[in-house]
Design a protein that fits this description.
Two copies of one chain form a homodimer.
Chain A lengths: L26 E6 L2 E8 L2 E4 H4 L6 H4 L5 H6 L1 H15 L5 H4 L3 E3 L5 E2 L7 E4 L3 H11 L16 E3 L5 E3 L4 E2 L2 E4 L8 E4 L3 E2 L2 E7 L11 H4 L3 E8 L2 E2 H7 L13 E3 L4 E2 L7 E2 L21 E2 L2 E6 L2 E4 L10 H9 L10 E3 L14 H4 L7 E2 L5 E2 L7 E9 L5 E12 L14
Parallel strand pairs in A: 6-22, 8-16, 9-26
Antiparallel strand pairs in A: 1-2, 1-5, 2-3, 3-4, 6-7, 10-11, 12-15, 13-14, 13-22, 14-16, 14-17, 18-19, 20-21, 20-25, 23-24, 25-26
Chain lengths: 419, 419
Amino acid sequence: MTPTQPLNDAPLDLPDDHPYGRHHLPYGAIKVGQEVHLAVRIGDHALDLATAAADTPWAVALSEPQLNSFLELGPQAWSGLRGWLQDALGNPARWGELEPHLHAVEGLTLRLPLHVADYVDFYASEVHASNVGAIFRPDGNALTPNWKHLPIGYHGRSSTIVISGTDIVRPVGQRKAKSDPQPVFGPSIKLDIEAELGFVVGGSTPLGSRVSVDEAVDHLFGVALFNDWSARDIQAWEYVPLGPFLGKSFASSLGAWITPMAALVDARVPLPAQDPEPLPYLQGSTGAMFGLDLTMEVRLNGTVISRPPYAGLYWSPTQMIAHLTVNGASLSSGDLFASGTTSGPEPDQRGSLLELAWDGTEPLTLDDGSTRSFLEDGDTVTITATAPGPGGVTIALAEVSGTIRPALSSPQGAVSAGS
Amino acid sequence: MTPTQPLNDAPLDLPDDHPYGRHHLPYGAIKVGQEVHLAVRIGDHALDLATAAADTPWAVALSEPQLNSFLELGPQAWSGLRGWLQDALGNPARWGELEPHLHAVEGLTLRLPLHVADYVDFYASEVHASNVGAIFRPDGNALTPNWKHLPIGYHGRSSTIVISGTDIVRPVGQRKAKSDPQPVFGPSIKLDIEAELGFVVGGSTPLGSRVSVDEAVDHLFGVALFNDWSARDIQAWEYVPLGPFLGKSFASSLGAWITPMAALVDARVPLPAQDPEPLPYLQGSTGAMFGLDLTMEVRLNGTVISRPPYAGLYWSPTQMIAHLTVNGASLSSGDLFASGTTSGPEPDQRGSLLELAWDGTEPLTLDDGSTRSFLEDGDTVTITATAPGPGGVTIALAEVSGTIRPALSSPQGAVSAGS
């Protein structure tokens, strides 16, 4: 991320292969004085859209502090703004128009660039679902009978989705190991990560209607890396019969910059063969059924512990939307859905510590010689990713990072801080 | 609901025992021209708060079309406005101040009076959980091992919560009976109701903090009847391992008027004995641990099919809040949580058709001679409830009602309309 030019000289003179070059153009929200403005990242700068785009057709939506109104404008507006930006960036004579609206990213305060409407977490990696099934339900089939018939998902807590960099307070709750005669209360001792890709939805739909796989393409605005922090001990005790709740709802982290789908057109790859054949409502044209050739890198205190590949996930994001709406549920601009933990077939491609250390039976060794089965207080987890961008360049998704803080004492003072 | 006086004569001259008298004062949102204004129901009228309360300390929050900002002001504001209203209603000399701001409820268009932030559905009736367990998991224990240790809950879809009176389109989706070799796709054939009480939360809390049972009292703004429409066949096939999703997310209906907790002080009743003793974070002072002596009446096309009592539910709403936040999850003003299906111990006190007709094995007979195991297109379900109000009066919660419309044909035209 070293700038190729001094920051104040020609900040828009970026080489074509810059990971935040004009082929990428992710969206964020920046503090400007006491206000929050929408922005586009260009190299090491953020272009203030509230001011730079004030004379464009999308100015009203772009004057808001979050993307939701712009998301509602739909794909023509999204490609319109992108085209306007790329035209200006491709023409050095126009750089002077943009330069007054640039802020160096370093030192900027970033905000979550969308108000998350409804949040759904899917479970689209066959490897992850099989691994978790083998660990949580050793006596049953690893994959539940429904898994290859529908993209399994559940609703999560929208209001606890936080921007990358936010500290994560270790959750407290009930757990009960098989050896515990009664539930035990205290800070989670199995705090985990889930390396996922989050999809931002634009364009609301009416209640009682459905979105087909082909139509879903027009509701996919962009992606960001997502860490669905999970307290495995809390989750294991609570999740039967109504699913994960407090084991997930304490926090999920989203990357600060939303990469538009338009930057990932060359990253689209075919899905793995889907067998049995999905029901017709989960089928679409070839162009609407895709994975993404996107490789994540998960670092724990600097040590790379995994490189999960997103390509190979069983279900297409468009199938997830078609499934989510087949019952008539409406979409809202600002809906966020995540892929579920991205685990590849190799042991060093697993997207959670639960899988990487196989529920504590095979601890990881970090570069400093320490070992980990789950997260300790003070640990920092950072997920990055790269993907092929337009024209053969490589683009870098914005990192999602968080540091674990000790559990708080309870309101009753009954629980010690820390774990 | 016949007015005791001609509408335009002395509309505020209500007898003390009027179900919408000055002891009740529920909150709603009404269309006034092209605008939506907050309102309080008084007898057969709605008092426009945007205009009537324009000189009060809460005028800014009350000028908004939804309650969220007023909810954020907290219990002092809630009791302040209630006191101001009751003072004015108790003093005929002041009726003239209010009368210009009254609208007859008949003919008014109502709107959902809150933007639902996060929505959680609990599962707090031991009878219901036991019945469903016996039906869905006949080979296991009806009650899961965690049930008496924690209030089980899951997040639902906030954006598909609709106001009473909204038609419900029959959902479409996958189901698979044991006898089906493959999943079947089509309109749900097991469309059901769930008679519940919804609780509206006010006062946001920071992420990483917790709300005790005692503190939770101050976050309970009010209640409304809630029908969590459920497609049992879709739910049964999808819900393992991550919980209910499309079987619920197509729609849930909320009563149009939110009854403040202050109107239910005399309806509070002790909880049933909780054995085993809950963990300390689920305990509170006697005043903070309560059920409500509230009896619902469920009508299907006019026939009363059940009278579920809310008293007897195992968990207090304050325990639900304490549980929801024990992991550090924040509250938002506008959060809504529901009790779960309210089923009493008698067969005619069950809150769902699944239980009333025992999964189709004991169909109900309606007054017109027809029978029902689940809902048919055109069916109307209306839930009402009464509770002891302040001073020995009986108050009536606003009904929650909905009519089933036929399923839509799919975007691909592959599914026939209707069921």
